[in-house]
Specification:
This protein has helices spanning about 5, 15-25, 35-50, 90-95, and strands spanning about 10, 25-30, 50-60, 65, 70-75, 75-85. With about 100 residues, it is of the alpha+beta class. The strands form two sheets. A four-stranded antiparallel β-sheet has the order 1-2-6-3.
């Protein structure tokens, strides 16, 4: 079995995500590209001791960037939007 911590790479924090956290009890993570929803749900529940209701995943394509005449590209990544049970929360998203 894969390590639970390797499936979840880092939280994704933006203004939109913080609004979703307040209104709809959703949190967003950058995750490993090959992970599926079932593995992700189990990993979140085990690591953070919360109940997951829904998991939505999407692949984000990297942007093409230019620096002068050199053209480069950011890498692609996978985003997971996790809906938590009402009353559950993840401490990292609560703020200091």
């Amino acid at each position: 079995m894969k390590s639970q911590w390797k499936l979840i790479q880092q939280p994704h924090l933006t203004e939109k995500v913080m609004g979703q956290k307040e209104m709809e009890n959703k949190v967003v993570f950058k995750v490993a590209p090959k992970v599926n929803k079932i593995e992700l749900k189990k990993a979140i529940e085990e690591i953070f001791k919360v109940t997951v209701e829904k998991v939505h995943t999407l692949n984000v394509k990297g942007k093409v960037k230019r620096h002068g005449k050199t053209v480069g590209r950011r890498s692609d990544w996978k985003k997971a939007i996790i809906t938590l049970k009402e009353g559950d929360s993840i401490e990292y998203f609560e703020g200091a």
